[in-house]
Write a structure and sequence with these properties.
Length: about 325
């Protein structure tokens, strides 16, 4: 598999270069912003293996169902499918493996699980800089997402971790809709001894951000809305743009693929900067939500694994997530 680099001022232009050079079915391995635009690393898809002759019909005249995967990849694909990964992501992994020396014609190659995990890890983009106080892009961070996904709890975890690192922080809430939402966040802020304020309008948010301009980080809570509430999205978009906020989309890890499509379609106008998969501990198939993030090329910042503040929040590790999907051990212990 020959990887190529494509650079352009915008991501759509970079992807257009990829399609022109590697075709519509190109395997995109990495996308990231640069100082001058965007960089995309991609490869031309490997030719598919020769089709196997059809199996003979059984005595009832039916043709047995053929697997969609190569025999060597089948056990990994079965586990990853139970994990929730989409066929689109698994096909990308298998195509990449066809360009390597691992044995795919029969199961049992000991190198296959680790290599498959490495390929998947390359597709999972992460955003550890969400917790980097020096990253100006995430200095003012707004947590957005549907109702009930744990935005307020995730904000408290992020704020608590920043406070523990010695950062000067402030908390602002736009959520005046949900009952007791303001009191809940005020209690978190009082516990951490940090400034807290309520913004009712975009003007309020700009004023409060100016008042807290000396803080290292400002966390902004927002009202949870149904993806079908199209009227609320333009108001939220205008408010966050007025404050120059980065948007961290909180999405429950157990969200089904079709519902993920609706959420991303609704929140796309906000310009999602990163995704946090919450309630990872409450599902046995987080792969559907994970695949939705991967297929859109969005960076994954954190996994929410419980209610404890601030402990139950993990910085996303592409290697560990990929190993979980393919049921193999990480090659090295992650910090």
């Amino acid at each position: 598999m020959l990887l190529k680099r494509f650079e352009a001022k915008t991501l759509p232009k970079a992807l257009e270069l990829v399609r022109g050079e590697c075709g519509e079915n190109a395997l995109v391995v990495e996308t990231r912003p640069t100082r001058t635009g965007f960089l995309v690393v991609a490869a031309r898809p490997e030719p598919a293996p020769a089709a196997t002759p059809p199996r003979p019909r059984d005595q009832a005249g039916a043709t047995p169902l053929l697997s969609r995967w190569t025999r060597g990849f089948q056990p990994l694909a079965d586990h990853a499918t139970d994990f929730g990964l989409s066929a689109t992501v698994l096909r990308a992994v298998e195509r990449a493996l066809l360009g390597t020396r691992v044995e795919l014609s029969r199961p049992g190659d000991p190198a296959l699980p680790q290599l498959a995990a490495r390929v998947l890890a390359a597709l999972v983009h992460t955003a550890p800089e969400v917790e980097d106080a020096t990253a100006a892009r995430f200095r003012t961070l707004a947590l957005v997402g549907p109702t009930g996904v744990g935005k307020t709890t995730t904000l408290a975890k992020l704020a608590g971790r920043a406070r523990a690192r010695g950062e000067r922080i402030a908390i602002i809430t736009l959520d005046t809709y949900r009952v007791a939402a303001v009191e809940q966040l005020r209690a978190f802020a009082d516990l951490m001894d940090v400034p807290f304020a309520v913004a009712f309008t975009a003007t309020d948010l700009r004023r409060l951000l100016h008042e807290h301009r000396v803080c290292d980080r400002v966390f902004v809570d927002t009202t949870g809305r149904s993806p079908r509430d199209r009227d609320a999205m333009p108001v939220l978009e205008g408010t966050l743009r007025a404050g120059g906020c980065a948007a961290l989309l909180c999405l429950a890890a157990g969200t089904r693929a079709r519902d993920c499509d609706a959420v991303f379609a609704a929140y796309e106008p906000l310009g999602v900067d990163a995704v946090c998969l919450t309630k990872w501990d409450e599902t046995v198939a987080p792969g559907e939500a994970l695949a939705a993030v991967v297929e859109r090329g969005l960076p994954l910042s954190h996994l929410g694994i419980g209610q404890e503040v601030p402990a139950d929040l993990l910085v996303a590790s592409a290697e560990q997530i990929a190993c979980a999907a393919f049921a193999c051990e990480p090659t090295a212990v992650q910090p």
